[in-house]
């Protein structure tokens, strides 16, 4: 059940990050992967400042922030 929730949170977070960053889009699968990886990055970033995402909304926000950070990083490396 945890994997299914991670995929759903990743999908929502990846879509939100795509909307925030206004790019050409990466497609559903890459958005899900960005959201899942963004969850790890977001948890790390939030942990560094002393925040913790315990409920589903917090996880989505955390993963979205992480996915946005990943998109910024990927775009910076591509340039």
General description of the model:
- With 79 residues, the chain is mainly alpha-helical.
- It has one domain (2-78).
- Helices cover 81% and strands 0% of the residues.
- It has three helices and no strands.
- The protein is globular.
Give short descriptive properties of this protein.
79 residues, mainly alpha, 3 helices, globular
A few lines on this structure:
Helix content is 81%, strand content 0%.
Output mean pLDDT.
83
Q: Main beta sheet, described?
A: none
Distinct helical segment count: 3
Domains (count) = 1
Inertia-based shape: globular
SSE series: HHH
Distance between the termini: 39 Å
Enumerate the spans where pLDDT stays under 50 for 5 or more consecutive residues. none
Computed Rg: 12 Å
* Derived structural class: mainly alpha
- What is the beta-strand fraction? under 5%
Count of strand segments = 0
Residues in helices, as a percent range: over 70%
How would you summarize the topology of this molecule?
Layout: H1 2-21, H2 28-48, H3 56-78
Helix pairs in contact: 1-2, 1-3, 2-3
């Amino acid at each position: 059940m945890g994997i299914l929730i991670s995929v759903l949170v990743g999908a929502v977070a990846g879509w939100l990050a795509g909307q925030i960053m206004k790019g050409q889009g990466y497609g559903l699968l890459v958005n899900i992967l960005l959201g899942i990886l963004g969850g790890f990055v977001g948890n790390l970033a939030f942990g560094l400042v002393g925040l913790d995402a315990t409920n589903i909304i917090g996880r989505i926000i955390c993963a979205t922030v992480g996915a946005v950070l990943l998109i910024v990083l990927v775009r910076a490396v591509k340039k």
